[in-house]
Each structure stands twice: as structure tokens, then as C-alpha cells.
Design goal:
371 residues; SPOR domain-containing protein; SPOR-like_sf
Amino acid sequence: MNTLKGYLFIFLLFILNTYSPNLFAQEVAEGTTYTPAKLSQEPVNVTADLFPTNSMEVGDTTFTVYGDASIPFKIYFVNGPQYDNIFNPNPTGIILNNKEFNFFCSMEKSIRQNYSNVLEAKEFDYLGKKYLMLVSFREDCLGDNCRYRCYNVFDISSETSIRQTSFSSIFQGTDSFGDFNNDGKLDFVRVAPKAQKGHVAGEMVTNYLVTAYTLRRGMPRQLTDQGNTYYLYVKGDEEAYSFEVLQAYWFFNVKDANGADAEPTTYFAEYISFDPMYRYLYNPNGVRIEKNRWSVLITDVGDLESAQEQCQLVREYDIEDVYIMIDQYSGDITYQVFAGNFVSKESAVAYVKKLYQYGVKGQLTDFRNSY
């Protein structure tokens, strides 16, 4: 009898191995494909999907009312023949707890969006705080720009002190949010197309750069590790709902497309801090920073120590994002001190005005055309 049981057991193993090979293949492949939801330890808790409950006309203004929200709000749109979609767009925005907010599509919140068609409205809570999330198209929806979504997120934990955070991303949904660095504060990830080498112009880009930020009093701050930017470089579907990791420097070990641990790779190759051979942008500690387009040149000095001292002085003007770049092409080597590192010109102009209030005559600088 025991011999018969033994034969049956061996026969069962043979059947499983012959007709169910995928059981073992799935185990090997586990973790090689990611979604934004897998990047955070715990998802946010969606408490309400919000939809318009009413609309009304008051004078020349149309109001779309979201009466079922925990803090009811209205989206307004001003009508009139004097407005033009391009040259004089119709004013629009949101009235939340009797306070008016504009729509934006960038972290600097420098250029208001005049497009307020909401694709998704949700309330969620996380780590003891409550948030309202509104997602819409970008105003300049043309070509690849139509792939982006504009996020306007409001911290509504305190009705008397509502803070707004804005950013854009290819990915749409509340899985953009979570606590990625385990510090007990809400963070978000931004997904942006980043073409691979050899990409053919005109073809859709499905390689993406995923970066993480923390909500910091309405002004996001990118998450870094001793100067190294946390990021994922991935290949995914059209809307980045699913992707494979190609290169990474993340908060935990991630798997590559072959199921092996992706070797942590810093965003920049090894470099020498304050190397005069290259016009890199550094923070005062010598960590290389990726250049955006616009900044404000404050001064140039003859040595590094003086430049670092100038950075400290600028920080006393309530400006934390100060940088140093070395210029060796004007004769002698000089150390240039900059304030801000912006995508938009408007944000840099605001810094020029702010510095002028402290008696500092900053020079608006376009990195793309000047360096």
C-alpha cells in the first residue's frame, strides 16, 4: 500500500512538471514589471470620487459645483466676447472654502492654466491628512503635450490653511502619491518621457524618467540621497501604467527586465566636484544638479570659498536654491553664483524682483542660449 502511494506521488509530480511549467516561470519573473502603485509601501486611501452636482450662471460667470465634497468647491469660467483662447483667455479657477485658486501645471506655479476641464476629481487621506486632487489636460494640448496630465492637489487637512501643489505627469491616478522615503510625509512621483539613444524623431517615446518629490508647504522638493537623485529609468506602455526598469537609483532594490536586482546607478556618472573643465551646475556642497533653462546670475568671484560664502548670503534672503557654476572661458577662472533653476522664465523673473528688494541686481540667465 505504501509502495502504491509512493508511485502515485511520483506520478503527480510528473503531471505538475509536465503540464504546469508556468507556475515556476511566474515565480522567476515576479517583480520584473512594475506599476506606480508598487513604488510606495502603502497606497493612499481614496475617500470619495467627486462629480459635479450642479451648475449655475451668475452674471458673466459659469460655476460648476461639486457639492458632495467634504469641503464643497466651485470651478468658475468667465464668459465674454472680449476673451480669446490664445491672446486673452477666459479667466478660470477654483473657489475652495471661499478662497480663490488658479490652475497650474508646473511645480513653480508660475504660469496659470486657462483650461479647467477636470478629468478626475478625488479626495484621499494619507498619514492623518486629507487631500483634494484635481486632474486635467494641459492647456497646450498638442502632439505629445496631450499625453501630460496637470495635477492640482490641495491639502485640506485644515480648512483655514489650504495649501496647493501643482505638477505634470504622463501617468494619471492617485497611485502617483505615497510615502516613498518612509519619513511620514506625503510624496509623489512624476513620470516624464525621456527618449533612449537612437530614438527616431516622430515615433512615440515609451521610455520614461520617474522622479520623486515631497510636498513641502506647496513647493515640492525633489528627494535625494546625499546629493544623488532618486529615479527610475523605465520602458513602459503609452500611459506608464506598467513598465520595466532599465536603470535605477531607488529607495529599495528593484528588479530589471531579466528578474535580477538592478544595480544602483546614480543619475550622473562619476564626476569631480567643481571641475573647471565643464560648465556643470553644483550646489554649494559640490553636488551636481541637472540644469533647467532659466536662472538668475548674482555675481562671479575668483575662488570657490568666496562663492560658497555668497551662496550663504543669498540664503538669508529666503532663497534656498542657490548654485555655483565655473566659467573658464572669460579669461581667468571665475565662480558664478546663481539663484534658482527653473523651467519657466516667469519664475526666474520673480526671483529677479525678489532679489532687487534686497538691493541685489540679478541678471536673468538663459542656460540654453548662454551656455
